[in-house]
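Predict the 3D structure for this chain.
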Amino acid sequence: MSSIRIGIILGSTRPGRNGEAVARWVLDRAESRDVAYELIDLAAFPLPHLDEALPPAMGQYANAHTKEWAQKIAQYDGYIFVTPEYNHSISGVLKNAIDYLYGEWNNKAAAFVSYGSVGGARAIEHLRAIASELQMAHVRQQLSFSLATDFENYSTFTPAPHHDAAADTLFDQLESWTTALKPLRVS
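Done. Predicted structure below.
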């Protein structure tokens, strides 16, 4: 197996969330790959609203919860962000978790998976801008799941078969970019 590690960040902590089924589908699809994928559930990292006195770009974290989060994120070479679309954007808990860190995101690759009434496309557009500011290379391929067509009764995840090929393309692109960026992180 490759030494590349990719974290699948589940960007919702809402009770009864749809995101867990989506993130687990992504993880299941990734299991046959020659890269190590791992689920990172934000529910396991209960970060308060950003409470660090210094800007994250300084890398001088004071709080134990920030240090734990930074250590977790630093382990990975790339990420897949799984996000709901709330009010034409990403969830607040995901934005907060991203904003806690800076250097841990730099020179890594990112891919996006979303779900919502229009597939979460607007949330992905916001994530692309955020990732660019954090010096992350984001891949073109994305996965967008519609609550109307990819969820039975808007709650049971039943993705359409055409998402399988799109997922393979997303993995191919993400793994290529992750591998290409790795020399930039070796000091």
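The chain is about 35% helix and 25% strand.
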